[in-house]
Amino acid sequence: MLAEKLLLNMLITISPVLLYSVLSEKRKFTSPIICGVLQSTAALACMIFTYASYGFNWDLRYVPLILAFLYGGPIVGAMVFGTLITGRVLLGGETVIYGLINTLVISAIPFLLMRKFMGFNPNMRVLITTLIGGWSLLVCYFSFTVHQSLIGEAITINLNIPDILIVGIINTIAIAIAAKLNEGLIERVRMKEEIQRAEKLNTLGELAASIAHEVRNPLTVVKGFLQLMKEEEKGKKYEYFTLVLNELGRAESIINDYLNFAKPKFEKIEEFLLAEVLNEVLMLLEPLATKQGVLLDSKLEHNDFLLVTDRNQLKQALVNLVKNAIEATPEGGKVSVTYKPNGNQAYIFIVDTGKGMTAEQLSRIGTLFYTTKDKGTGLGTSVSLRIIETMNGKVSYKSEPGIGTIVTMILPEGKKELLSL
């Protein structure tokens, strides 16, 4: 009977993830309140379909509690915690105090870990969730043994061990499956966002390329004639020609950025050391950092990590990202650039102590025309991300308002064979 009840509990603990994955297709059902209601309902259902034995209720009520804090956040966790406390008080019984203490102690670890939890990789998150599930079993078993000793009953080992094993195995399987399903839901949402972002980038890229190409042709003609007129002009209007040509050059630069955004051109593929390019970028931006009153710090490991790509394109991407960090940092702040090789990949971290960004701003990073600067087109970041993606690299952002932003760039090691292509 115990196994049947626990297997039913396992289905109950999995059902909120499945229901939420269906509801999340519609944006209006993605609030933490909906998730909290689903997990609270699951926890309450586990308490209803429980197995009473040895003075205790045997069920999987703590699985939704752990999942709520780790995957749902403080609001969802608080809703499930309140549901369990209220439900346990209403059920009453001799062991009500043990149930309340168990709920409080078990929720402590996921509550303390929830802010850092999503920073781990998916497999590590599943492992951590499963281990916390094991922790909940230990707390319950300790509570069970204390209760047995206080009422003066000896613990019957032959009777208790099979039941404890059944609870442990089913609890572990249930929380591991639920965690895996949550990770699948997170990955699906991430992939959906990536697909939508890629579609937007492709559409914008095609539009930018067609417009920029048509505009650049007449600009080139105008610029050529103005240069000829400038050479013949010796009077007061000479300065005007210089100003107009400079502005035309700036317009041409913006148009080139549009074309580069549409499809970055790797004109000169070569083999080079990544550390050399990073040093060049830092030397180039040091005057800007000094002017802004920002400390530009670097921790670069000098080794033989090689890249095979367009050096100038990579340099442009790095300049844009580091420059963004400097401009986002107030006077007296700090920008750190760290480079760490790891096997056949190189990790570059650009950390600033600037104003940071909200979750909504982070979701729009890389979108054409979107920028957090007072003056800017958003092209620099868009082009940089496009260049890194073309190099089969990855760029991710992590930011908190008032604290700063961390940009993580991952670049794959180059292969000499590419030079012959």
For the record, the CATH class of the largest domain is: Mainly Alpha
Distance between the termini: 68 Å
- Count of discrete structural domains: 3
> What is the approximate shape?
elongated
Radius of gyration: 30 Å
H-E string: HHEEHHHHHHEHEEHEEHHEE
Looking at the overall shape, the CATH architecture of the largest domain is: Orthogonal Bundle
Structure explained in plain terms:
The protein is α+β, with helices and mostly antiparallel strands and 421 residues long. It folds into three domains: 2-196, Arp2/3 complex 21 kDa subunit ARPC3 (Orthogonal Bundle); 199-262, Helix Hairpins, CATH 1.10.287; 269-420, Heat Shock Protein 90, CATH 3.30.565.10. It has twelve helices and nine strands. Strands 4-6-7-9-8 form a five-stranded mixed sheet, with helices on one face. The longest helix has 76 residues, at 157-232.
Comma- or semicolon-separated keywords:
421 residues, alpha+beta, Arp2/3 complex 21 kDa subunit ARPC3, Helix Hairpins, 3 domains, five-stranded mixed sheet, two-stranded antiparallel ribbon, disordered C terminus
Topology:
Elements: H1 2-23, H2 32-48, E1 51-53, E2 56-58, H3 62-72, H4 74-91, H5 96-117, H6 122-150, H7 157-232, H8 238-262, E3 269-273, H9 274-292, E4 295-300, E5 306-310, H10 311-328, E6 334-342, E7 345-352, H11 359-363, H12 379-390, E8 394-400, E9 404-412
Parallel strand pairs: 4-6
Antiparallel strand pairs: 1-2, 3-5, 6-7, 7-9, 8-9
Helix pairs in contact: 1-2, 1-7, 2-3, 2-4, 3-4, 3-5, 3-6, 3-7, 4-5, 5-6, 6-7, 7-8, 8-12, 9-10, 10-12
